TrEMBL record:
Residues 1-97 form the HTH arsR-type domain. This is Transcriptional regulator. GO terms for molecular function: DNA binding; DNA-binding transcription factor activity. Keywords: DNA-binding, Transcription, Transcription regulation. InterPro entries: ArsR-like_HTH, HTH_ArsR_DNA-bd_dom, Metal_resp_trans_reg, WH-like_DNA-bd_sf, WH_DNA-bd_sf. The keyword Transcription regulation applies.
Length: 109
């Protein structure tokens, strides 16, 4: 059972990077070539390639070669769903924090 937790943590660690989350969001609806991703995500090509390589190794993205171009896509749509759920959790936390701040501001003398 411990092994499943370690594997789970590895996936979470891979997702725990703002640029990788941006890559997932960019690829959520369609596959894209590296050049298309570079146009949408402000990264150097070497950095993007490193992120994509790690994401591919962890099974988050898959590739397809067409001539000299490599196209990336999300390997499993549940990855996008997981990111969406975490975004909802974040927005809920921010909403609660704002409510608390508003209450505290109303209490000021």
């Amino acid at each position: 059972m411990k092994q499943i937790y370690e594997l789970h943590a590895e996936i979470c660690k891979t997702l725990a990077n703002p640029k990788r989350i941006e890559i997932i969001n960019t690829l959520r609806d369609k596959e894209m070539s590296v050049s298309e991703l570079l146009a949408k995500i402000k990264l150097k090509k070497a950095n993007l390639s490193q992120h994509l390589s790690l994401m591919r190794a962890k099974g988050i993205v898959k590739t397809r070669r067409d001539g000299t171009s490599i196209y990336y896509r999300i390997a499993n749509p549940k990855v996008v769903k997981a990111c969406d759920i975490m975004r909802e959790v974040l927005l809920g936390q921010l909403s609660e924090s704002n409510k608390t701040i508003n209450k505290l501001e109303r209490m000021k003398p």
